[in-house]
Specification:
This protein is mainly alpha-helical and 360 residues long. Helix content is 74%, strand content 0%. The protein is globular and about 60 Å long.
């Protein structure tokens, strides 16, 4: 595969964004060492770099017809998305905050944190977060994974199958799917990254832009975050960055790993919190029932994804690949490492399943 110079703006943009957020991480580590997980920040910074460097590889092709879609993707990622972000912030500043200066008193990190403390007190929580919070959290994580799979189904089975796109546009449904997923995915990462830039700006007193976050976004974050995560990068950013680093695998393997990281993890957490009684370790929110639910959900969703998208594989191979993917998830879940499982689950599950896919 060959790098095309036209794709370099995406790589440069992602390296710059990752570097800027890493500077935030250094500041957060100094000011809030008890809350900020610097190891996660290092891993996230590396993911920004890898995602940026991989983008030109994903778009490498000798098909001249694909260059149009390549250019269109770069336009959306490097021009349209940043412009949209700037427009939203400008609107908030000029037409919301300046018209009602009291909003600065309502939209700030202190008030936002107080909402978490109030909710914890009302629920009399003995653990870090409740069932409803976790349900909102996992639904937010599932959203990008669902969009990715729907875009692929549309491209390969509808856009290409019904309209003979290969003859009309000169590219296959799979290439069109790559265009849609990469464009939506990389644009989404930039939007989440911009949210982190604005949200975490409270660490700089003279450059605090927290009040520019729309109320609807703050409300969504309040439902889906733990209190201590206000000093971390938001999980959807980390999750989608992890997806970007494994997109080179066959789509069935990629989709299985993506859904293990969302549905498998969601089943383990939600079912464990709702019905689990025996916690392991005892001081953790995780339960034995949650581990079992996560394993079974991971195994089932992997079977389904491989059967749908890699139908040429034998049933025995599908079962073996799915089983090892589920076991990988189970091991990561039970080890409860300091690195975010939104990084570990998709990457390591994809690596194990991909190895078996190619060499079994």
């Amino acid at each position: 595969m060959v790098y095309h110079i036209i794709t370099l703006p995406v790589s440069i943009l992602f390296i710059i964004c990752g570097g800027g957020l890493f500077c935030y991480a250094i500041k957060l580590r100094k000011k809030f060492p008890e809350y900020h997980n610097f190891l996660n920040s290092i891993c996230t910074f590396i993911l920004w770099i890898i995602a940026g460097l991989l983008y030109p590889v994903y778009f490498s092709t000798n098909n001249p017809n694909f260059k149009f879609f390549q250019s269109l993707s770069i336009f959306f990622i490097c021009i349209f998305t940043p412009s949209l972000i700037i427009l939203i912030l400008f609107y908030q500043l000029q037409f919301v905050v300046k018209k009602d200066p009291e909003i600065k008193e309502k939209r700030n990190i202190k008030v936002f944190l107080e909402s978490f403390d109030k909710k914890d007190k009302e629920l009399n929580r003995s653990r870090s977060y409740d069932y409803k919070t976790d349900l909102h959290r996992k639904a937010l994580h599932l959203f990008p994974a669902g969009i990715i799979i729907l875009l692929w189904i549309f491209s390969v089975y509808i856009w290409d199958g019904l309209w003979n796109a290969d003859e009309i546009w000169g590219i296959s449904g799979e290439y069109y799917g790559k265009f849609l997923i990469l464009t939506a995915g990389y644009s989404g990462i930039l939007i989440f990254g911009a949210l982190d830039y604005v949200r975490l700006s409270f660490i700089y007193e003279n450059r605090n832009l927290f009040h520019l976050i729309p109320d609807s976004v703050l409300k969504l974050l309040g439902k889906a975050m733990k209190r201590r995560e206000n000093y971390e990068f938001i999980r959807p950013t980390v999750l989608v960055l992890s997806f970007a680093t494994i997109f080179f695998f066959p789509f069935g393997v990629f989709a299985a790993a993506v859904l293990i990281a969302t549905i498998g993890d969601g089943a383990a957490s939600v079912i464990g919190l709702r019905f689990g009684k025996r916690h392991f370790p005892k001081t953790s929110d995780k339960t034995l029932l949650g581990y079992i639910a996560g394993f079974l959900a991971s195994f089932g969703i992997s079977i389904l994804m491989l059967w749908i998208f890699e139908s040429h594989l034998s049933l025995n191979k599908i079962i073996i690949v799915a089983t090892l993917g589920a076991i990988t998830f189970f091991i990561i879940d039970i080890l409860n490492l300091k690195i975010d499982d939104n990084i570990l689950n998709p990457i390591f599950c994809a690596l194990i399943m991909g190895f078996l896919y190619y060499f079994l």
